[in-house]
Amino acid sequence: MRTNYLILALVLLPTLGSAQTTPTEIAAASDILTRIEALQKRIAPGETAIDITERNDRKRSELIEHAGQVWDFEMQDLSDHIGRNPEVGWAEFEAVDTLVKVLLSKGFAVETGVAGLETAFVATWVSPAGSDGAVLGLIGEYDALRDIDGPFHGDQHNAQTPVVLSAALSLKAYMESDRVPGTIRVFGTPAEEIGPPAKTIMYEAGIFNGTDILVRSHSASETSRARAGFGVCCLNINEVKYVFTGRPAHQLTSWNGRNALEAAVRFYTSVNGLRSTLRPEASIQGVIPEGGIAPNVVPARTVVDYYIRYPDEVYLEHMTRMIDDAARGAALATGTAVEINRYGEYRDGIALGSLEELYFAYARKLGAPRINEVPQRPAGYEETGWVTRDIPGIGVGIFSSRDTYHTKGMEADGMGDIGHAGFRLDAQIMSAILYDYLTNPVLRQKVAEEHTELQTLLGEYHNRLREVYAPEISEPSSEDPMQPKWKN
Ligand SMILES: [Zn+2]
Predict the structure, then answer these.
(1) Distance 91 CA to ligand 1 centre (A)
(2) Residues with Cβ < 8 Å from 114, sequence gap 6 or more?
């Protein structure tokens, strides 16, 4: 889900590099940003990364080489195979079947259908030296995009799990031969492109619990890294379905019915009416997937599905409250009932300088193409943001297409030389980062320290936002100085 990146980058140009976009956010964050900077000075991620990557380490060089070979001889074909057989989110049955078979054949224990999701899985391998070491997590996706001509891999998710497997298998070989204790976990996460967000569901079910670090890869139209801090790729989102229930009746005796379509239309219009009292950065878009069945029957059930987006989650909650109230009002006005079902939430994620700089130092060292030296705005390594708040991690994304996200061009590059070269590097860098995490206590300590402090700062930032927004997000009352004093 990276389509909005370019558009967002244009909108956010004045504050490029920081995740705070509105004047309110910037005011709320000013002191927090100073503290993030101080934290970065203290842990010195750039220097640490150079220190680590320039160190002579034969084991690590072998591991990186091995990850490349696993990609060349096994995983590239698997990636292309999934690419040629695209399946949309929640229906990635063949991809999961194939991936699970590979994992089982490589000695992983696999649990499928985790968190009640048919195409989710967790594969676990425990070192013969024991589990008394780091738990290394790798996230893979495999869903294709929906299109009028059928599904296609225009976001290159086909490569993600094969990339992860190349890294995992080279690590496994190293841990076996050198008797290094620890655990490797591969998380198969479905339907990145369709709500409800699978990773949030898996997170809430505790699937990621106990994992020390998480890595993930994604297609990229350049090789860049994020600044440390918190932010999100495509705004904070609430996905909400409003289900109106009326009473059916024949058209000619419509007075016996209660019209749920009237409720939906009033609601949709009320939301448009709210726009003038919402901040300009708000993005609200809805569809009516169910609007009744037949014109000669009073519609008894309708559904309005909204994506409500805002740069920060505090104002987003205020907007969502107003929209929920508009739905209740429409139900009241039409004698119908409304059920409000918030089925998805995406929030700011945490980006760690200690891992972003390490990834980027490897990208430079291994000669990654199309390097953009300008650090990008912070965003979590997975789009829902929730997992990144709990577990430190990194999204690796080496240049893998000349085209933009969600295009046939990106799909073609994903199964050609450009994609193959990018994915190979993704796998090598992923294996190196996990190796460093496993073997270098200084890095582990820095990652933990940075993550804990950014968690605290994110909480403080939200409190600051609540304070600055207080006058406009509180409900009006008769005591409110902005209310007219006259009564009639
Ligand atoms: Zn994607």
Answers:
(1) 16
(2) 120, 121, 122, 202, 205, 207
Assigned token pair, 47: 């220097």
Do 71 and 430 touch, CB atoms closer than 8 A? no
Q: What integer pLDDT is reported at residue 478 of this predicted model?
A: 55
What pLDDT was estimated at residue 437? 98
Please tell me the pTM assigned to this model: 0.91
Among 346, 363, 396, the domain-final residue is 346
Q: Ligand 1 centre from 340 Cα, in Å?
A: 28
CA distance 262 to 245: 11
d(CA 211, CA 184): 9
pLDDT at 479: 57
The torsion defined by the Cα of 317, 318, 320 and 326, in degrees rounded to 10, comes to: 160
Task: Find the distance separating the first CA and the last CA of the chain, reported in whole Å.
Answer: 53
Strands (E), 232-377: 236-245, 283-290, 301-310, 337-346, 349-351
DSSP 344: E
- Average pLDDT of the chain is 93
CATH for 177: 3.40.630.10
CB 143 within 8 A of CB 158: no
**Residues spanned by the domain of 274:** 236-346
Among 325, 346, 367, the domain-final residue is 346
Provide the pLDDT for residue 486.
47
Cα 155 to ligand 1 centroid, rounded to whole Å: 5
* Dist CA 166 CA 163 (whole Å): 5
Amino acid (1-letter code) at residue 316? L
Q: What pLDDT sits at residue 358?
A: 98
- By three-state DSSP, how is residue 342 classified? strand
| Interhelix angle 45-54/441-473, nearest 10 degrees | 150
**How is residue 455 written in tokens?**
């968690």
Ligand 1 center from residue 254 Cα (angstroms) = 47
What 8-state DSSP symbol labels residue 122? E
Contact of 284 with 327, CB cutoff 8 Å: no
* Span from the CA of 439 to the centroid of ligand 1 (angstroms): 31
pLDDT one-digit tens code per residue, 64-123: 999 999 999 999 999 999 999 999 999 999 999 999 999 999 999 999 999 999 999 999
Is 90 exceeded by the pLDDT of residue 414?
yes
Same domain assignment for residues 294 and 185: no
